[in-house]
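[User] Could I get a sequence and structure tokens?

[Assistant]
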Amino acid sequence: MSFINDKTKEINCKVVYYGPPRCGKSTSLRYIYEQIKKGSKGEMISLSQSNDKTLYFDFVPLNLGKINDYTVRLHLYTVPGDVGYQQSRALISKGVDGLVFMADSQLEMMESNIQAFADLKEILGSEWGEIPCVFQYNKRDLKSAVPTKELSSYLNDGTFPEFETIATSGDGVFESFKMISKEVLKDLSTY
């Protein structure tokens, strides 16, 4: 849930990029970070190993401007995808205002996508479906990419917006980010 500070006139919203290991969460966040103007972002923090595997999280703070004299800040996080980091994923996903579920489009990753999605729904419990969400089907450029319609049938019941992406080149990544930002701000207006 958004943190609203009336004293400083700030609204802080949290968006989490969630998905299986090595599906492109960190790569997407780096691409978004590179596209945002310097004055509208803080430093990107990444706790990862030398092989670019996220250990705890990646974090990017962004300033979206003002709404009714309040400065709106969006905090983007990734979670580690590996099974051994369940507690980290649960902790980082607490108080979330928006989600980007990132699936790896490769056929051999289908089971990992389904497991990660089940874990997310378990972590959120009754909040699932109440929080704005966007599905990002990544690695669409690979030969073993499963058709989007099939990915969607396993992961998204048609409720949430979907985007085909190639995080390494940025294709579709910013569009997905803009949609989740819009959905979070729309949800914020209901407070």
